[in-house]
Amino acid sequence: MVFTHFADQRLYLLSPGTGAEPAPLTPTSATGGGLRWCDPVVRPAHRDVVCVLEEFTGDAPTDVRRVLASVPLDGSAADDRSAVRELAGPTHRFLTGARFSPDGCRVAWLAWDHPAMPWDGTLVRVADVMSDGVFAGARTLLGGADESVSQVEWTGDGDALLVATDRTGWWNLHRVDPATGEAEGLCPREEEFGGALWKIGLRWFAPLPGGLVAVLHGRGAQTLGVLDTATGELADAPGHWTEWSPALAVAGTRVAGVAAGPHSAYEIVELDAGSGHSRVVAEEHRPAVDPAYLPQPQARTFRGTGGRDVHAHVYPPHHPDHRGPDGELPPYVIWVHGGPTGRAPMVLDLEIAYFTSRGIGVAEVNYGGSTGYGREYRNRLRGQWGVVDVEDCASVARALAEEGTADPARLAIRGGSAGGWTSAASLTSPAGDVYACGTVTYPILDLEGWAADETHDFESQYLRSLVGDPQADADRYRDRSPVRHADRVDRPFLLLQGLDDVICPPVQCERFLGRIGPGVPHAYLAFEGEGHGFRRADTIVRAVEAEVSLYVQAFGITRHDVPVLDLKEDA
């Protein structure tokens, strides 16, 4: 087994059953973030492992180069950087791991360059593999600035490539001739057979024997199916799972994946494509709480600004032994997902159940810009971040109030990362009048700082598509940044931040707080040892209880089961 160890980012070899400790295969580097390795593919014939190598060339987060590299399995590179062979030159800023043809003679991968993000435009690169394992004749086969290919694989016979490309407006599966680049749609539908490539190694489809392909597909939620590439017929796997993660793996006719449902947590599921039988093979869901306390979610589509569709999941308050006072509508909190090019899945979430079982409804909004609904829906956010997302969230909140589902005087907004941005942007804009309070977690608050050098390399030019050119559109960067309008906040808020966050650094929170006007009740909780996304149990408990306390105070709810959050008002 070959794996990357998080603590030191080195590649290790482990021989199970021998009792031996993992042996390092790669060296360390004192430059910047050092050397990092991902998406390893072992080549027994060459006695090596091929990885994406990320090598820092300086101390800045953007001082980095990436190449496909070969690491010998004998450990000779553990202390010798020169023993690592680069298989193809650093022709592109970003690339995914190598996908070898069944005979090992050809290789394919994806690549793209700033300022594009992988959901904007990527390239399919192919090359021949020489007898010594080095790549030759690398060329671009498919893709471009306006075509996003999210995954590439070889067919089982090695005669063609399979790609998920959005050239039709949806990430659909295509067969591609590796010599000419000619692409043929295999199952044209207004559904997604791919997604946003936020992490290397995501896998939405996997070839099976006999021309079959295991695929994730859907509009919004993605389910597992088996596609017959000869006929275009698609048969879905049986079971209660409604959402599958892009983490498919195959062995013969067996398909393994990670799946969940509205009332079941993520499990490792195996589908036998031959028999059609599905079963849980690991991490079987065992209810942590009585299912009677879980909410019954509803997938809904609302009308937003200009009549546009806005997709959301609504979780009404629910408790088996309690109900709200007669004649009183419940409070609701708008949950904003991160990304912003992402999507909130409708799966079991005990944090949501924590709120709904306490009489507080939740509405997760997949605002314009979210994935799962085609490229046109995703592109609504281009140049409009801080506008479309804010409007769509406010539209859902208003609709819930107008239809009599939610109390219009007791609405709130909350989100983390890009969701924290939308929450803060809402509170500092006219849309803030919709909400009684808000929770902002490890947010982006200062576009000017974030566009300069206050985040990591992958997202360092993300704002060019979301907002515009930092120089030509400098006024837009200033006008939309919540930090520039912190003095407009006039209702209670909670700010949560990890002090080790390198993606959304705490300095942005400090700038924001420094500009809050007097008399605004607020609290700032900063957690040592936490980065972008809280991981420690005590941090999570403290953050959730603080959020509940904010709502208790802002909504006028009587509760005594959480510590009182001290909301200070600066003079």
Q: Mean pLDDT, nearest integer? A: 95
Based on Cα principal axes, name the global outline: globular
> Largest sheet at a glance?
9 strands, mixed
Strand order of the largest sheet: 26-27-29-28-30-31-32-33-34
Radius of gyration: 25 Å
User: Regions with pLDDT < 50 over 5+ consecutive residues?
Assistant: none
Task: Specify the helix fraction band.
Answer: 10-25%
The percent range for strand residues is: 25-35%
Number of helices: 9
Structural class: alpha+beta
Tell how many strands the DSSP assignment holds.
34
Give the distance, in angstroms, between the N- and C-terminal Cα atoms.
Answer: 60 Å
What does this structure look like?
Helix 3 packs across helix 4. The protein is an alpha+beta fold. The strands form seven sheets. The protein has a nine-stranded mixed β-sheet with strand order 26-27-29-28-30-31-32-33-34, sandwiched between helices. Strands 8, 9, 10, 11 and 12 form a five-stranded antiparallel β-sheet that branches. Strands 21, 22, 23, 24 and 25 form a five-stranded antiparallel β-sheet that branches. It is built from nine helices and 34 strands.
